[in-house]
Automatic annotation (TrEMBL):
It holds the Pfam family HEAT_2. PROSITE patterns: HEAT_REPEAT, PROTEIN_KINASE_DOM, PROTEIN_KINASE_ST. It comes from Phyllostomus discolor. GO terms for molecular function: ATP binding; protein serine/threonine kinase activity. Residues 1-200 form the Protein kinase domain. InterPro entries: ARM-like (IPR011989), ARM-type_fold (IPR016024), HEAT_type_2 (IPR021133), Kinase-like_dom_sf (IPR011009), Prot_kinase_dom (IPR000719), Ser/Thr_kinase_AS (IPR008271). GO terms for biological process: microtubule-based process; smoothened signaling pathway. This is non-specific serine/threonine protein kinase. It catalyses: L-threonyl-[protein] + ATP = O-phospho-L-threonyl-[protein] + ADP + H(+); L-seryl-[protein] + ATP = O-phospho-L-seryl-[protein] + ADP + H(+). HEAT repeats lie at residues 1142-1180.
């Protein structure tokens, strides 16, 4: 604390000890921030902005020193002189080294805890940022973003519920809070992007201090790859094994055991112990004051349930007693209780203990107390679960429903008065309890939902009941319980209950039966019940969306078959003009007019139609069935005499119906091009959509409505491939929305529409100084995916397609440099890396230390963020950029572990390509992705690159087995017409690196049949460049590797029937390069392959084809052919006599202008001598020609080859004699003398040794 010096952090001035105390002297503060909340309720946004900047300043300072605060809340923020604030209470603060990247100990106040904290998952500094978001939200709104008096509900809200945004909050502030309150810590707004958010940009005080040598990377900087790997490993090792919070699990276990224990002893013990046998449903403690968070305990369980459960820490799994509280702190670290109710609840009287065994069945007081008990407060946390685990309570509920239900069916008021409290208790219990197992057990024992649906059905069939004054209230409360039942988590497949799903399906079917009948009735007096039933149906749809494909598909399919009455009733209700909402007798009066209510019948119907059409994000099980419903609606919308389309279009300017109807139209346009054309020709529809974009329609949720409108317009342009009337002038307004909005989803939707408009020729003025920051913000802020973009695109696809257009159209070198030098370029690849969920790069040592030695498959990419089309667009952006700035590509590729290099390598991996192929439209874009990656990886081989740099790039590619990936890509994923570039890259890698070559051969050996088949087809195809590259690759393999690896090459040349048709075809290929490389391959193979030598002898005409290359017009072919024939002649064996036909051509090649051809011809003729062809060689004066070349050829290597050949040929007596008669010794002696006369500083030619040896061999003593 002494070392922390920041204007927004309380400064420790001194500290000393007395006999009994430790005294700390700090800055003087004038109060606490929470006192302002108590006095004023909330603050204006400008004041919140000032506080936000100071809080961020303080946290930036702490996080730059790798310190976590871990207890951010209003009570720990002091008010300083001059209006400033100071952060205090560092009792739970923790400094972290690089050895500790994440923490798991639970510290803090529940209202401000992040989702990862309440789930007991490993967390880091982003937990502090979540708390800041909670504090700022509370300052602006008056309550925390997630507030309830039940710890179970609180955990559920923090983990699952979205934040409710008041309409008064500005878009910029809302976007700032949305970033901080993102549930996924990886997507949460964090450093350094947080500093540049417009809400606080330029207001943050940054005090830079040199970090100590042991601090490591500050939290305010992005982690380098090696530390990110370490952090991920720690998080994986420390993650809890279960999928449920241990805290809540232990609490539920403790409550259940306590309830069972009380039940076991309920009839024993003296009367004095009667109180112990009573089930305490509520506590008699007084509620706590507003917002004042009590002191804290190091463990969350003790912190939030200390007054609720008095069991020992050992009993709850803590293992040791909590430490003693620290007294002399601003906030004591002692026992913490959950914050009490808000001011409106603070004045409620205390409730009494309820004895379920001694109360009368029909006691209204008892049901009132039970209703209070089912709404737990901080000091009643176990009350709902205790009720569920009490068999008497379950029996009473069932009896009350049966007996009171029977009286209701007789039309008795007494039945209604008895059943209403029970229904409200049930509704509260079903809504508040998050533990599905005891909740479902209770429902099953109590006869739910059968009793509820039976009451609903019988009440609908009885007109006498419907005339009762209490019917409205009864039907409303009954529907509320049914709705709460459908919303329970035990109705999901992942629930731990055994038979809940069949019960849920049957209940849903019965409800649809009754809903269909209710909607088909023309009685206007039952609008409230219709509305409530339709709202319940919407909740049922949400539950179905989260269920398995089988269950959800059956449910939605039934709306087109057996439950068609429901769908018809909804559509009829939407097209029928609705009178003012009728309030039946007994129901509360409606205070607002119909047009201002969000829960009226038209609003409920439009919401229900949207629920059955819109495909839920990340839940594809029901998409197919919902698509069928959308198709059915689209068919009705396109009928000429149907009133449905005019009704939907007329509602687009309704403040409440607008959003739901937009979703319906959007879903239907996805499946109907005809509907798109009709909407494009509908003036009122286009006018409404344009007005929505321009903000001229006042709607309840302008942001989401505008987003859906933008996507709907994009879809219309995409389907029509034309611009509907009026959209030509919309470009500038959409561009302004793109560059100025702080809402990421709106920016993404605007980019999507701009991309479509650009393809239709619409021009819009987008300056780099505007669109680069806008793109950076959209990519760095957390993604808020609320709706699937058009045509299966990803959330960022439109942004990437627009970026590609801008770079292509405005592609000046200065613009490219502005892009690549901006923060956007780094953020772009980081976002791409995260969206594809690529595995982290680890070193060999780390791989050995990993939990499992085999490589684990990577996670499925988040196609909702970037679809295959988006991947292709981003890679195209990279190609366009690096074509302009190739050196930048080299700098990225040469950085080992860089996001770009890691991404490119992973995009070629079999695991990703399999995922890509299974993704929507993935197979369509797979070739584009692969070819773009190959194009980027070819840059180093196309440029003049430093040798060391190229070695590093090759090593990186080799370590990732890119060579094997490329071959597998060509075999399994690409059509033959598109494999040329990958094979070219593969060949470059294999020719430069032996490890890459071995990877190629090993991959062939792993799947010989498939890969040899591919190589055979590719060799004989009509792509000369592809064939040439493959021949070079095969020739290099034959030249470098041992003969044991060459069998597949022999198989390729021989063909499946061993007729050598492939080899014949290649030797006669019209392309010079193909013929030359074929002869070269043969030359290397003939050094080792006995089978190929045998084929030249046994296969008719094959040897003639080989010899035919000696006279080819192309020098490269002649050179390769002479090399092949020379190797054939070496130890030719039975082939020797047949090679006599090669002598004339070889002799002719001795005069070829190219030295390489002359050298090969000389060597070949030398090899023919020992094969008994002396006469043929003498016939064509080969010894004379060779002697002349040895003495006069201008090329030293040709001279050397001629001398070696003469040494070989002189073994033939006839040739020896000829050489003697030619005076070879004298001529060679002159040559040798010339070599000796060279200056001493000049190196002696290699031929000198052979010259002396040959002179020695030609002496008479060596003649034969």
């Amino acid at each position: 604390m002494r070392g922390l010096r920041h204007p927004n952090i309380v400064h420790m001035l001194d500290s000393f000890e007395t006999d009994k105390e430790v005294v700390v002297v700090t800055d003087y503060a004038e109060g606490e921030l929470f006192q302002i909340l108590e006095d004023d309720g909330k603050l204006p946004e400008d004041q919140v902005q000032a506080i936000a900047a100071q809080l961020v300043s303080a946290l930036y300072y702490l996080h730059s020193h790798r310190i976590l605060h871990r207890d951010m809340k209003p009570q720990n923020i002091l008010l300083a002189k001059g209006g400033g604030i100071k952060l205090c209470d560092f009792g739970f603060a923790r400094a972290m080294s690089t050895n500790t990247m994440v923490l798991t100990s639970i510290k803090g106040t529940p209202l401000y805890m992040s989702p990862e904290l309440v789930e007991e998952r490993p967390y880091d500094h982003t937990a502090d940022l979540w708390s800041v978001g909670c504090i700022l939200y509370e300052l602006a709104v008056g309550t925390p973003p997630f507030y309830t008096t039940s710890i179970f509900q609180l955990v559920n809200l923090i983990l699952k519920d979205p934040v409710r945004w008041p309409p008064t909050i500005s878009p910029c502030f809302k976007n700032f809070l949305q970033g901080l309150l993102t549930k996924d810590p990886r997507q949460r707004l964090s450093w350094p992007d947080l500093l540049y958010h417009p809400f606080i940009a330029g207001r943050v005080t940054i005090i830079t201090e040199p970090a100590g040598p042991d601090l490591g990377t500050p939290f305010t900087s992005r982690l380098p790859p090696e530390l990110q790997v370490l952090k991920d490993q720690q998080a994986h090792l420390l993650a809890p094994k279960g999928n449920r919070s241990r805290i809540l699990r232990q609490a539920c276990k403790h409550m259940a055991e306590e309830a069972k224990q009380k039940q076991k002893h309920q009839n024993t013990g003296p009367a004095l112990e009667q109180e112990d046998r009573t089930v305490n449903v509520v506590s008699g403690m007084t509620p706590l004051p507003r917002l004042r968070a009590a002191p804290q305990e190091p463990g969350l369980l003790a912190g939030v349930m200390a007054s609720e459960m008095k069991s020992s820490w050992t009993e709850l799994g803590a293992g040791e007693a909590p430490p003693a509280p620290r007294e002399n702190q601003h906030t004591q670290d002692g026992e913490q209780t959950f914050p009490g109710p808000r001011p409106e609840a603070a004045g409620q009287p205390t409730t009494d203990v309820v004895d379920l065994e001694n109360e009368e069945l029909d006691s209204d007081d008892e049901w009132r107390h039970l209703l209070e008990a089912s709404k737990p407060t901080p000091i009643q946390l176990k009350a709902p679960l205790t009720l569920l685990c009490n068999p008497d309570f379950c029996q009473r509920i069932q009896s009350q429903l049966q007996e009171a239900g029977g009286q209701i069916l007789k039309g008795k008021l007494e039945g209604a008065s008895h059943i209403l409290p029970a229904l409200r208790v049930l509704s509260s219990l079903l809504s508040s309890c998050s533990d599905s197992v005891p909740l479902y057990s209770f429902c099953r024992e109590a006869g739910l939902p059968g009793l509820l649906l039976s009451l609903f059905r019988h009440s609908q069939e009885s007109s006498s009941i419907q005339q009762q004054c209490w019917y409205g209230t009864f039907s409303r409360d009954l529907m509320a319980v049914i709705q709460a039942y459908f919303a329970c988590t035990f109705n999901l497949e992942r629930s731990q209950t055994d038979d809940s799903l069949p019960v849920f399906q049957e209940a849903a079917s019965l409800f649809l039966d009754m809903l269909g009948k209710l909607l088909s009735q023309p009685d206007d007096s039952r609008q409230t019940l219709r509305r409530d039933s339709v709202m319940c149906f919407t909740v049922l749809c949400e539950a179905m969306d989260g269920n398995s494909c089988t269950i959800s598909k059956a449910f939605y399919s039934s709306l087109l078959t057996t439950q068609r009455a429901v769908l018809d009733g909804l559509l009829h209700g939407l097209t029928t003009p609705q009178p003012p909402l009728h309030t039946p007798p007994g129901a509360p009066q409606v205070s607002q007019p119909l047009r201002e209510q969000g829960e009226d019948l038209p609003g409920a119907i439009s919401s229900a139609l949207a629920a059955i059409c819109i495909a839920p994000l990340g839940l594809p099980g029901c998409w197919e069935a919902k698509e069928q419903i959308s198709r059915h609606l689209a068919d009705q919308l396109t009928e000429d005499n149907n009133q449905l389309r005019p009704s939907l279009v007329s509602g687009l300017q309704h403040p409440i119906l607008c959003l739901h109807l937009l979703k319906v139209l959007y879903s239907c346009c996805h499946v109907s091009e005809h509907l798109c054309r009709l909407l494009g020709q509908e003036p009122l529809a286009l006018e409404s959509l344009l007005m929505l974009v321009q903000g001229k329609v006042k709607v309840v949720d302008w942001e989401e409505s505008t987003e859906v409108t933008l996507y709907l317009l994009s879809l219309l342009v995409l389907r029509l491939q034309d611009l509907p009337p009026g959209m030509q002038e919309l470009g500038s307004e959409i561009a302004a929305l793109f560059t100025r909005s702080h809402v990421v989803s709106l920016v993404s939707a605007a980019a999507c529409l701009l991309g479509q408009l650009g393809q239709q020729g619409v021009t819009f003025d987008l300056q780099p100084v505007e669109w680069i920051p806008a793109t950076t913000h959209a990519l760095s802020a957390p993604a808020e995916v609320r709706l699937t973009p058009p045509d299966g695109c990803g959330f960022y696809d439109g942004l990437l397609i627009l970026l590609l257009q801008l770079l292509t159209q405005q592609g000046k070198a200065s613009l490219i440099w502005d892009v690549v030098s901006s923060e956007m370029w780094t953020v772009l690849w980081h976002r791409f890396f995260m969206a594809l969920r690529l595995p982290k790069e680890v070193s060999t040592q780390e791989e050995e230390l990993s939990l499992s030695s085999p490589r684990r498959s990577s996670s499925e990419p988040d196609w909702m963020l970037i679809s295959p089309q988006g991947v292709a667009a981003l890679l195209s952006v990279a190609v366009v950029t690096f074509t302009q700035e190739p050196q930048l590509c080299l700098s990225h590729l040469s950085q080992r572990g860089s996001s770009l290099m890691s991404t490119l390598k992973h995009l070629l991996s079999p695991s990703f390509l399999q995922q890509l192929g299974h993704a929507p439209h993935g197979s369509e874009f797979l070739p584009v992705v692969v070819l773009s990656v190959c194009q980027l990886l070819c840059f180093p081989f196309a440029l003049d690159v430093d040798a060391d740099l190229l070695v590093g790039i090759l090593a990186d590619l080799t370590d990732s087995e890119v060579t094997a990936y490329l071959l597998q890509v060509c075999c399994y994923h690409l059509p033959l017409s598109q494999v040329e570039l990958p094979i070219s890259l593969l060949t470059h890698l294999a020719l430069r690196d032996l490890t890459c070559l071995n990877q190629f051969v090993n991959t062939v050996a792993a799947s010989p049949r498939t890969i040899v088949s591919f190589l055979s087809v590719a060799l004989l195809g009509d792509q000369p460049l592809l064939t040439s590259d493959l021949l070079s690759l095969l020739a290099h393999t034959a030249r470098v590797l041992s003969p044991s690896h060459l069998s597949f090459i022999q198989e390729l040349l021989a063909g499946s029937d061993e007729s050598y048709r492939p080899l014949r075809s290649l030797l006669g290929h019209p392309d010079n390069s193909v013929r030359a490389r074929t002869y070269g391959l043969l030359g290397h193979l003939l050094q080792h392959s006995v089978a190929l030598r045998g084929a030249l002898q046994s296969q008719a005409g094959l040897l003639n084809l080989l010899l035919l290359g000696l006279g080819d017009k192309d020098p490269a072919v002649r050179r390769s052919a002479s090399f092949a024939v020379g190797n054939t002649a070496y130890q030719a064996g039975p082939l020797g006599p047949a090679l006599a036909a090669a002598v004339p051509s070889m002799t002719q090649l001795l005069g070829d202008p190219q030295a390489g051809i002359r050298r090969n011809a000389v060597s070949a003729l030398g090899n023919l001598g020992p094969e008994g062809l002396g006469e043929e060689l003498l016939q064509y004066e080969v010894p004379q020609r060779l002697l002349e070349m040895a003495c006069r050829d201008p090329q030293p290597d040709v001279k050397e080859a001629a001398l070696i050949a003469l040494r070989s040929l002189r073994q033939e007596p006839s040739i020896h004699q000829v050489l003697v008669s030619l005076g070879a010794s004298e001529k060679l002696a002159l040559l040798s003398l010339g070599n000796q006369l060279l200056p001493h500083s000049s190196p002696r030619p290699a031929s000198a040794k052979h010259c002396r040896k040959l002179i020695h061999l030609l002496r008479p003593t060596h003649s034969t």
